[in-house]
Design the sequence.
């Protein structure tokens, strides 16, 4: 008798399961718009030139363990990138930034920390949200609820405010800083002001997830929500990642920043976050953080990264326009404005599960059942095929 004899087979991850189906599809015209990875105009995941150069400039060296909280050059540079060079919260010693296993690791370490050292036991995520938010916070011991977010015309802002207003004090609220996954609809600056004020008034704990810094409008404007929360003087957490912005997906390069009320509180929280890391994976890996630190601190590599990031952002924008035009030309029955009104790597097309299944089975175009497509995987060679398929099922 094995201890595993009654273990049930878990359902396949909705996104990774889609990739498996895609790989098994014999169609020569197939297009994978399921997974959230940026691809260039030739359909390849690019190795950024700034990353390639940084890797050649880093002298091969022994790999002892990094400190539990990560490479100091990296965490310092990330804090400046995320909070800005003259952030009062940073200058006042209220921000603790630790290296994590990408954005996912930051969310998990943050969730573990909150459960271990605060009374927080309930978290609200947007409806819909990145699938892993619910799973990750549930595993960390939270009760997970949702706040309203989506209408086909944009953010359901009044209902969002009503849901946050109804939340009990101490509730953690996960907010997407920019490029909301999966809808592509972001809050306006004025809406962020209202959310910052409301979370303060209701004594909620904002946990800002910024997985796409630089993909909406630029590195500084995309971090505006974090700057606003920091200016409010209230405690909050921020998870950040270089998976998308530096194309360092497999290197797992991210950070968790915790903003506290005082330097003394920051020191105590920093001591506790070390325990959260130590009991998960002990200390983070060296290579990706060394690459990112080099890019962030070397002026010429930093300028190259800015230019490459701008190139990715502009290409996504062009593909959004091209998709809207191609949908109209193909006779898509429905509103095509979603393509250009939304930002970032994803679009919510408004197509139903049945239509998405038809897209896959009849046309080899793979998106999620909830109608999400990765516009960062479109290119001049496949956008016409995708639009024609979407028009056919519309
Ligand atoms: C909203 C959101 N948060 C976090 C992540 C985590 O990505 P990573 O762990 O590669 O940083 C993703 C990735 O798709 C995401 O979409």
Sequence:
């Amino acid at each position: 008798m094995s201890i595993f004899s009654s273990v049930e087979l878990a359902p396949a991850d909705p996104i990774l399961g889609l990739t498996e189906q895609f790989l098994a599809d014999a169609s020569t015209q197939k297009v994978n718009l399921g997974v959230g990875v940026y691809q260039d105009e030739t359909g390849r995941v690019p190795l950024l030139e700034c990353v390639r150069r940084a890797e050649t400039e880093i002298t091969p060296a022994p790999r002892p363990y990094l400190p539990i909280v990560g490479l100091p050059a990296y965490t310092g540079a990330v804090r400046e990138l995320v909070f800005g060079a003259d952030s009062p919260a940073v200058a006042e010693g209220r921000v603790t930034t630790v290296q994590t296993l990408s954005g996912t690791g930051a969310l998990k370490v943050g969730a573990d920390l909150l459960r271990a050292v605060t009374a927080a036991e309930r978290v609200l995520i947007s409806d819909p949200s990145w699938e892993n938010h619910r799973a990750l916070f549930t595993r960390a011991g939270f009760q997970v609820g949702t706040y309203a977010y989506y209408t086909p015309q944009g953010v359901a802002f009044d209902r969002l405010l009503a849901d946050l207003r109804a939340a009990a004090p101490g509730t953690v609220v996960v907010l997407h800083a920019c490029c909301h996954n999966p809808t592509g609809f972001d809050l306006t600056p004025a809406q962020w002001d209202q959310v910052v004020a409301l979370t303060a008034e209701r004594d909620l704990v904002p946990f800002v997830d910024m997985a796409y810094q630089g993909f909406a409008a630029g590195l500084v404007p995309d971090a505006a929500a974090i700057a606003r929360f920091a200016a409010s003087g209230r405690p909050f957490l921020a998870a950040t990642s270089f998976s998308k912005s530096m194309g360092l997906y497999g290197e797992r390069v991210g950070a968790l920043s915790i903003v506290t009320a005082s330097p003394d509180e920051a020191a105590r929280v920093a001591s506790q976050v070390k325990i959260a890391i130590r009991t998960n994976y002990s200390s983070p890996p060296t290579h990706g953080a060394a690459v990112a630190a080099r890019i962030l601190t070397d002026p010429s590599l930093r300028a190259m990264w800015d230019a490459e990031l701008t190139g990715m952002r502009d290409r996504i924008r062009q593909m959004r326009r091209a998709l809207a035009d191609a949908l109209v030309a193909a006779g898509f029955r429905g509103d095509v404005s979603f393509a250009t009104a939304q930002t970032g790597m994803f679009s919510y097309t408004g197509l139903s599960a049945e239509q998405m299944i038809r897209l896959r089975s009849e046309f080899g175009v793979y998106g999620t059942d909830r109608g999400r497509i990765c516009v960062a995987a479109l290119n001049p060679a496949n956008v016409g095929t995708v639009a024609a398929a979407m028009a056919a099922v519309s």
Residues 206 and 236 are 5 Å apart (CA to CA).
